[in-house]
Amino acid sequence: MAMVLVVAVVDYLTGVEISVSLLYLVPVCWCGWSAGRRAGLLVAAASAAGWLAAVLLESGPTEQPWVLVWNTLTLGIIFALVAALLATLQSTQANLEAIVVTRTAKLGREVAERRWAEAQLRQAHAELQSTQMQLIEAAKMEAVGRLAAGVAHEVKNPLMTLGMGAEYFLRRPPANADEATLLQDMKDAVHRATTIINLLLDFSKPRPLQLAPEDLNASVENALGLVRIQLLKQHIEVQRQLQPDLPRLPLDRTRVEHVLVNLFTNAAQAMPSGGTLTVRSELQQAADASVGPAVILQIDDTGPGIPHEHLPKVFEPFYTTKPPGQGTGLGLAIVHRILQIHGASITLRNRPGGGARATLTFNPQPTPLS
Amino acid sequence: MKRILIIDDEASITRSVKLNLEALGTYEVHQENHPRDAVHTACEVRPDLILLDVMMPDTDGGEVAARLQEIPALKDTPIIFLTAIVSNAETQGREASIGGHDFLAKPVDLAALTEAIESHLNP
């Protein structure tokens, strides 16, 4: 309003000039843009009134008052239109800005949702792949089982004939030393073949577990006792880091000790010129509270580690890196199988500092597989 | 001399077992390779112990054992089952399920076989 008054005074002082009259547009525009439509229209009316006042003061009463009224009204309408237009423009711009802000926020949410969905999809894909691998593994084991049972019958009968034949001749005085050696070799060969067939049968069709609450540390000590001579012979030092107050685990002790002897023997074979065998047990809280704590057993050796390309295959039946005749390729497969039917698991990795580490995870309340 | 009857459809097995056991000098061993004739042969031989294969064509070891035990004279004759379809570990505890008879996994070595035989004949 002050601006309108100033313009009216200027208008009066300078005479009624069209160029000066245009100055009324300044408060009209400013008010229409910044103060809204209603204030703009008020200032437009005030401007028209200011203009009329300036004209009347300057030229006195007119002989054609209707012309003056007409001009005032026209000017007022023009000012009102300008104010309304600017107010509408300003409001539209504000609306647009609000829409942009809303849409940007929505887009941000959609991008976040998409990312979350992609992460879910990746996780589902990984789970699917893992399930697929397990199914393939199970199918493979089933095939091995069928094959083993079929082959066993066909092979064990001839083996018995061969073994009995060798024993018959071994009981008689040999013609020479070579004959005796050959016969003993035959008997040993039958024995080796029998061991492999029996391992294969046990692997493919495991006996039911005889579960009882057991102290895992005691089983570790028993298994270490069984391999003590081998460890001494190879100058392997044993370091025990066993947590004393572990909960008792539902285990088939004989078979778990079989697993441990197998793993200790493997570790010893990796250190033919001596080293350190470290056995560590501890109760570990799981990240997921609903899962409950797990008992972890780690077996570390200071050997050369396992070549990277062998790592994915070490638990496969018949996979061996030992020379022909020296390994059945069933040792770790049976270890894996025995732990699996206990509801436990095993991983084999190379340690960053050198050597290999077997990590066994036992659940104190597992659901052993039947 | 104790009489032993071995019933197995594979002649090479009955022959090798017979030769080995007879070489020990304390057993008289008879063999039968046709499970259908097993009861007839057993009635003739009157063995002190029977070695019986489990998986045979037509008639399996379990069926033969049941028929043998129907004969009053053979009712108490101990039977040692020989099987090729299980491992050694699996045979442990299985005798309970087949009426207290022994259960040996093929291939059986002579020492294990004579030990099982002796545990019945000279307990």
Key structural traits:
heterodimer, A: 370 residues, alpha+beta, 5-stranded mixed β-sheet, rod-shaped, B: 123 residues, 5-stranded parallel β-sheet
User: How is the largest sheet of chain A built, in terms of strand order?
Assistant: 2-4-5-7-6
Specify the biggest β-sheet of chain A: 5 strands, mixed
Q: How widely separated are the two ends of chain B?
A: 16 Å
- Assign the structural class of chain B, choosing from mainly alpha, mainly beta, alpha/beta, alpha+beta, or little secondary structure: alpha/beta
What is the rounded Rg of chain A?
Answer: 47 Å
Helix share of residues of chain A? 55-70%
Rounded average pLDDT of chain B: 86
The low-confidence runs of chain B, each spanning 5 or more residues with pLDDT under 50, are 93-97
Radius of gyration of chain B: 13 Å
In sequence order, what are the helices and strands of chain A, one letter per element? HHHHHHEHHEEHEEHEE
Report the strand count of chain B.
5
Taking the sheet with the most strands of chain B, its summary is: 5 strands, parallel
**Order of neighbouring strands in the sheet with most strands of chain B:** 2-1-3-4-5
Q: So how many helices of chain B?
A: 5
Q: Could you say which structural class the secondary elements and strand pairing of chain A correspond to?
A: alpha+beta
Helix content of chain B: 25-40%
Description:
The complex is a heterodimer of chains A (370) and B (123). Chain A is an alpha+beta fold and 370 residues long. In chain A, α9 runs antiparallel to α10. Chain A has 10 helices and 7 strands. In chain A, the strands form 2 sheets. Chain A has a 5-stranded mixed beta sheet. In chain A, strands 1-3 form a two-stranded antiparallel sheet. The radius of gyration of chain A is 47 Å and the shape is rod-shaped. Chain B is α/β, with parallel strands linked by helices. Chain B starts with a strand and ends with a helix. About 4% of the residues of chain B have low confidence. Chains A and B meet through α5 and α6 of A and α1 and α4 of B.
